Structure formats: C-alpha cells, structure tokens
C-alpha cells in the first residue's frame, strides 16, 4: 500500500529540488528579457542621438560624434579664450551640442550680423536658462512690432536731457568709491585685485542712476551681494534645471530679491513725482515722461513692469560695464604712453581744477579718452557673443539651414580683430579712432561691441559715458600701476570677460602741482 501511494506521487512533488529550480529559471528568463530590452532601447536612443546630431550639423565643422547626453558640457564648465578661438577659427559657421541642445556658432562678421538682423528667424535667448533667470515676461524677450514699440518708448530714458541728469550721480558715486579704494590701498601699500570692488562701484552707480534715493542703502548692498549669483548662472552653458542648489536656482532667488526692491523704488518714484519733485534718477525721468501730453507711446506701467525694465538695464550694465572698466584700468596701466596722453588731456580740459563737476560738455572735450575706451572694448570685448534661438528653420547660407529651435550664436571677437579693418588687431592703439576717415571709423559694421539690429544695446551712450567718466575721474584722483601676474592676460569668462587674477593694481593718491 505504501509503495503504491508513493508511486502515485507526482515527480514534481516527490523531488522538491526540481520544483525549486523551475521558478528561478522563469524569473531569470524574464529578467534577462528586460535587461536585453533595456540595453537595446538605450543603444537605439544613443544611435538616434548621434544620427540627429550628424543630420543637423551636416557639413559644418565640428566633432564627428557628440558625447552621449552631455555633449560638450564638460568643456563648457571651464571655458577659455583659446577653446573659443579654436571653435571660431574652425569655420565661419560651426556646430556643437550640449545636453542635446544643438548650437550653431557664427564667427564671421557677415553671419554674426545676419543673425542679429533677422528677427523673423531668431530671437535673443541669452543663455538656455535666460528666460528663467530674467523672467519670461521681461521686455527683452519681446519680438517684432511689440519689441519695436516698447523700445521706442524707452529711448526717452537715454536722451541728452536724461544723460545730463545721470552724469552728476555717476561722478558722485565714482568719487566716493575711488576714495574708498585709496583708503584701503593706504592700509597695506600692496597691489589689490579690483574686480569685485569695481563691480561694487558699478552696481552702486547703476542703482543710484536708475533708482536714486528711492531704494535704501541696505537694499543696494543686498542686491550687489546677491547679483553675483545671476552672473554665474549666465555662463553660456549651465545645468539647465532650476533645482535647489544649482546656479540657475540661486540666480532666480537673487532676481526675486532685486525685483522686490526695484518695485518699491518704482512705487516711491511715482509718489515723489506726483508730489511735484524734480527728477533725480531714471525712474523719476520716466514717470515724468509718461505724464507728458506730447508723449505718444504707452503711458501706463505697473510698478512690476517698471521694475522689470530697470532690472533688464541692471543686467545689461552690470557685467559688461564692469568688464569694460576693469580692462580700461588694466590697458591704461600697461601702456604708460597712453596714460600720459590721457592725463595731458585731463589737464587741458580741467585747467587744473580737478574738483570741478563733470558735464556732458566736459566729457565731449575728451576725444582721446573716448578713443581709449573704444579701443579697450575692441581689444578685449566685454561680451564675446550673444546667444539667439532659431524660432524656425533659418536659411543662414545658400547651403545650410539652421534647424528650428537650435541655438545660434553670433560671435563678435573676429569682427573686432579683423586685420583688414584693424591693422595689427591685437595691439592696443587708441590713435586708430582719431582719424574720422581711418579704417576703423570707416567700417562701423565691424564694431559689434554693442551688437547690431533691433536688439542693439539701448544704453550704449550711457555705458560709454560712464566708462569715460570713471577713467577721467580716476586719472584726476590717483595714479595706478598694474602688478602683472601669470594670469593677468588670461581671460576668465563668467557671462562676460575678466582678467583671471582680478586685475591687481597698486593705487596711490595723485598729487597735482
């Protein structure tokens, strides 16, 4: 009986080891299927990525293959002038890819100007996260007729009358900061980098010109301290998501702080003008212009909208103008023969009265210093390029069309170092600008320091006036020597360009006979 019973037991029950072996076999089979399927999908996606990249770049100079997913991101973490020059010199148009963002670089004057002057095909994008940082509603991202009309209304903020108001503010702030520079220099007697102190001076100047006393001192300090986060996030390539701790996230938080104070300034300006005060800053001038019955543009702006415009001016002026100022100081110190001519001009214009307030008329009597400023920004442009986004397929040449939604980036460096327009282009030679019929002045299309087309810098006269005023005041108040280091001529690119050692200057008060 026992033998029969045992004979009827199924083999799978009688042998537990066979039963336990069968289940893992099925599970292993399923796992292997998923594993190989996943590998196949990943490989297919990688092949697709490379195929799309090669299809988009076509015959443009570039790497034959792009690094999967990140592309040139590693290179962009520490950009250098050498790497950019290599890219620009590879062809009038070239291509790269970063985080699957396809980028076409334009290095020639022809193609750079074509991008800047083709609003129906491309719009300013600044950097990939630009709209997140500056706010998508900011007027700088307007295009077409909306942008043209908005910009025409803002031109009233840069008239000769308005600039005349700003000069006194600029000079007052400049003298205050240069006195502080000299006081700090006297404590150590050693050369100190001026990069951050120049940025602080420039920020203070901008906030007082734009907002006057409608913004408290501690607010100006807070904006200055936090704005560096915005500068760092405006590098050409950054991690694109605004996750806590990232540069883009920190920049957005800094923008919110600045906007809160700028809205308050706009509100206070409206109250002051309604109470009959005289304009003392840009916001005041704007409010008064809007109240003028002969003004034919948009007349109603909320505090937020005015704050966004002021913030856009702050963005445009802070980094680029700081870079221009720092290199202006460095170029003068490195060329004592030029510095001597600037000081001679100052003596002639001021006639020994170095405390006399500057005016637009006084600055107009400084053609040599103006040439110095222009040449300094040509030799080392504060802004090397301005990213645009192709809003649709952009036939930039007869045989190449930039794909829609690609980044297309005009570079200014080669235009500003074109030897056919600027002989010996690497040399610092302000005299090239003194002859109205000379090559430099006869080819204005090459001078792309302030861009070109509908988005050309609206405040270019303000910017050049401020640089001229600061250097003129510095020449009146102090002497300076450049302590050259191995990094003095190495360009650090953080949104704009700076000497990698911060431009170390030894400052001493100037004694006038």
UniProtKB/TrEMBL annotation:
Q: What is this protein called?
A: Cytochrome P450 sterol C22-desaturase
Q: Show the coiled coil region(s).
A: none
Q: Which N-terminal residues, if any, form the signal peptide?
A: none
Residue positions annotated to bind heme are 457
Taken from the record, one Pfam family name reads: p450
Segments traversing the membrane: 31-48, 88-107
Gene encoding this chain? ERG5
Gene Ontology terms, MF aspect: heme binding; iron ion binding; monooxygenase activity; oxidoreductase activity, acting on paired donors, with incorporation or reduction of molecular oxygen
Q: Which organism is it from?
A: Laccaria bicolor (strain S238N-H82 / ATCC MYA-4686) (Bicoloured deceiver)
A GO biological process this protein is involved in? Answer: sterol metabolic process
Which family, according to the similarity comment? Belongs to the cytochrome P450 family.
Q: Which SUPFAM superfamilies match?
A: Cytochrome P450
Listed cofactors: heme
Tell me the domain of life: Eukaryota
Q: Which PROSITE patterns match?
A: CYTOCHROME_P450
């Amino acid at each position: 009986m026992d033998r029969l019973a045992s004979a009827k037991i199924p083999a799978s029950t009688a042998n537990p080891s066979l039963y336990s072996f069968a289940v893992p076999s099925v599970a292993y089979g399923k796992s292997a299927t998923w594993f190989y399927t996943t590998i196949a999908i990943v490989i297919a996606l990688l092949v697709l990525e490379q195929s799309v990249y090669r299809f988009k770049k076509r015959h443009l100079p570039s790497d034959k293959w792009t690094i999967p997913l990140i592309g040139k991101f590693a290179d962009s973490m520490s950009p250098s002038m050498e790497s950019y020059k290599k890219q620009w010199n590879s062809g009038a148009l070239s291509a790269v890819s970063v985080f699957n963002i396809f980028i076409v670089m334009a290095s020639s004057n022809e193609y750079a100007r074509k991008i800047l002057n083709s609003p129906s095909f491309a719009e300013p994008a600044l950097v990939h996260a630009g709209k997140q940082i500056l706010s998508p509603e900011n007027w700088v991202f307007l295009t077409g007729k909306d942008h043209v009309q908005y910009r025409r209304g803002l031109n009233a903020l840069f008239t000769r009358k308005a600039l005349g108001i700003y000069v006194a503010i600029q000079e007052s702030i400049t003298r205050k900061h240069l006195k502080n520079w000299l006081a700090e220099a006297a404590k150590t007697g050693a050369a100190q980098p001026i990069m951050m102190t120049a940025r602080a001076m420039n920020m203070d100047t901008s906030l007082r010109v734009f907002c006057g006393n409608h913004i408290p001192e501690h607010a100006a300090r807070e904006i200055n301290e936090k704005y560096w986060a915005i500068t760092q996030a405006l590098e050409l390539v950054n991690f694109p998501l605004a996750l806590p701790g990232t540069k883009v996230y920190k920049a957005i938080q800094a923008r919110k702080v600045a906007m809160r104070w700028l809205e308050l300034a706009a509100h206070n300006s409206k109250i002051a003008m309604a109470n009959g005060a005289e304009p003392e800053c840009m916001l005041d001038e704007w409010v008064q212009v809007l109240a003028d019955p002969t003004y034919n543009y948009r007349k109603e702006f909320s505090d937020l909208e005015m704050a966004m415009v002021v913030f856009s001016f702050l963005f445009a002026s802070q980094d680029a103008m700081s870079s221009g100022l720092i290199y202006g100081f460095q170029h003068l110190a490195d060329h004592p023969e030029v510095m001597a001519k600037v000081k001679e001009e100052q003596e002639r214009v001021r006639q020994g009265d170095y405390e006399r307030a500057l005016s637009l008329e006084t600055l107009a009597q400084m053609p040599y210093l103006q040439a110095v400023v222009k040449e300094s920004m040509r030799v080392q442009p504060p802004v090397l390029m301005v990213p645009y986004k192709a809003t649709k397929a952009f036939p930039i040449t007869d045989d190449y069309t930039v794909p829609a939604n690609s980044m297309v980036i005009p570079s200014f460096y080669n235009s500003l170092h074109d030897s056919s327009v600027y002989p010996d282009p690497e040399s610092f030679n302000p005299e090239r600008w003194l002859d109205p019929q000379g090559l430099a002045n006869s080819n204005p299309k090459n001078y792309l320091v302030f861009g070109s087309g509908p988005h050309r810098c609206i405040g270019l006269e303000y910017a050049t006036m401020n640089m001229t005023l600061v250097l003129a005041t510095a020449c009146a108040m102090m002497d300076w020597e450049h302590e050259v280091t191995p990094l003095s001529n190495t360009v650090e690119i953080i949104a704009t360009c700076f000497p990698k050692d911060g431009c170390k200057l030894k400052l001493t008060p100037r004694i006038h006979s």
